[in-house]
Amino acid sequence: MHSEFAIEARGLSKQFGELRAVSSLDLDVPRGEIYGFLGPNGSGKSTTIRMLCGLLTPTEGSATVLDTDVPENSKDLKPKIGYMTQRFSLFGDMTVFENLQFIAEIYSYPFADRSTRIGELLDRYDLVAQRNQLAGTMSGGERQRLALACAVLHHPELLLLDEPTSAVDPQSRRDFWENLFRLAGGGTTILVSTHYMDEAERCHRLAILDHGVKVADGTPQELQNRTGMHVLEVIADDPYAAQGAIHELEAVASVTQLGVRLRVLIPDSHEHPRELVEHALAARNLKATTRLTAATLEDVFVAVTMKPRKT
Amino acid sequence: MKPLYRIMAIVKKEVRQLRRDRLTFGMVVGLPVIQMLLFGYAINTDVRNLRTAISDQAGTHLARQFVAELRQTQVVDIIEFVETAEELEQLLRGGKISIGVVIPPDFDRRVSDQSRSAVQLLVDGTDPTILGVANQLKTMPIGFDSAGHAAASQQLLEVRPFYNPERRTPVNIIPGLMGVILTMTMILFTAVAIVRERERGNLELLINTPLSSTELMVGKVIPYIVIGMLQLALILAVGRLLFDVPVRGSIADLYLAASAFVAANLSLGLLISTAAKTQFQAMQMMVFVLLPSILLSGFMFPFDGMPTLAKYIGEVLPNTHFIRLTRGIMLRDATLPELLPDLFYLIGFTLVAMIVAAMRFSKRLD
Predict the structure, then answer these.
(1) Among A48, A53, A59, A91, the residue to mutate for chain B (most B Cβ within 10 A)
(2) Is A101:A115 a contact under the CB 8 Å cutoff?
(3) Exposed site from A201, A271, B198, B288, fewest CB < 10 Å?
(4) Could you tell me the fold of the domain covering A5-223?
(5) Is A83 on the interface with B (CB under 8 A)?
(6) Inter-chain touch B12–A102, beta carbons under 8 Å
(7) pTM of this prediction?
């Protein structure tokens, strides 16, 4: 029974005491793709990933990962997945080489090919110079490269990455994603959680989580095309005053200031969003230019995680 | 073969980490030496109910009356009557009794003869406290019904200390201290072993690998068994050099007993490790085991003299059994076959603690 999906979850839920960390999550992750979990802290990203690799038992629902039922058979799953924890989880008091060697031993990597594989990884993840450095003394970017090297050492079919880039600089993040694309190109399925929009945009497909609920999913393009909102960009002389004026309009779902620009979201049930805003600004003698623009992923995120407006 | 390789991977990792952890490494050597020096002398107190066996070779009315008087002192708890003095010595060596009373066939005649003592007390002198108590018995007033005999009570008993003729405390303390030191270091090392990895985040990585709970547990214990053996050698050497403590029995027996004891403590440490949430909690739980191991194991106070409840608690502690083993082997020249129940207890304890620890340590986070 070989499913076209690396991960299939139905009604996956996790309750921690009073808190419903994940609520009735359905998930289909196609093989060989990079699938993103986008959501703020506490949205249930880590909890979901942990349920998928058998670390947490779901309160309700079921999941099949690489044709294996979890958590029942998660033992069979372990050799086939690579997992990168949110917090650095390798041994700080061992060197880069020792850490890699330990992982190779734990996964029973064929002895004859072990040193070749470790050399390959040191090369690929730019750790040759740090080979004999204690992992605990390395920079965030170096640690992250080591963690990825360890996670992929045994050629896993599925890579679960829990906020892998939260502690590294922008250049390291770019390099890291280059590596992920290379792995995906080689057939590895990757599930990655993030709270960075630019990273979410790089995924083949993503799900947006909010308070444990999946509020949207699809390709980044699909999500941007069906926000259900007009996106209006307003450039005003006094953006702060303009924001106040626009915010008063009942039809407006959200106003966000980005420097001198304002991004205004108005439900697409309104036929003339531009006129509505221009009229409001003119009424207050506020000078501004407006134009309708395409939704970014950030707009999508704001739109789907928005609380209903108080009136 | 895979499980074996994975266990070896853990062993290798532990040794590597240990080598770089100067504090722990220092404790391996420093703790036993400092402890040995600190416990030069021990606190002792009054004792009652010492296990006693009697060889009544006279069988006369007077002898029976003497035994009744002896029983009334409550210092001794007569648990057995045997035929010969040799049997008493056997019981003594096996640690089954602390005092043996020999009533010679010519007891009645000796009682009236002031120049000779009438009764011989064979005393396990490895514990000076017990010896002290036996010496008190020597002066116990025994009121025989015929007034003529009363004056003789001063010389009635002769005390023959076995195994520690010089009556030196360190001779008794060192074998016990061995147990205390090993309890402290072994539990300490393993109690933090799992918790530390949990705190540092390593555990989340480990439980997502094919490594099984049992493999992790066994791999973590092995390096410390070796360390325990090294500590044992260190303690024996210091005991010899500074306190002149002998090893009368076989070294092999001693090491065999110590292996079982070290394994028992390591498993207990692992069990603590699976229950504690932080390293600090693990430390607290360790103290909870360590204190009774010092106070209720027979290390500080003679086991026989303790209240019943304390004895029950003491019986559970591995250290109680280990102290019986070491005192037997080192001081009384006993062999392991004579001390089997204590050895079996330690092995059983290890198995149970190990199984419970592996069961408690689930490869889950919830």
Answers:
(1) A91
(2) no
(3) A271
(4) Rossmann fold (3.40.50)
(5) yes
(6) yes
(7) 0.76
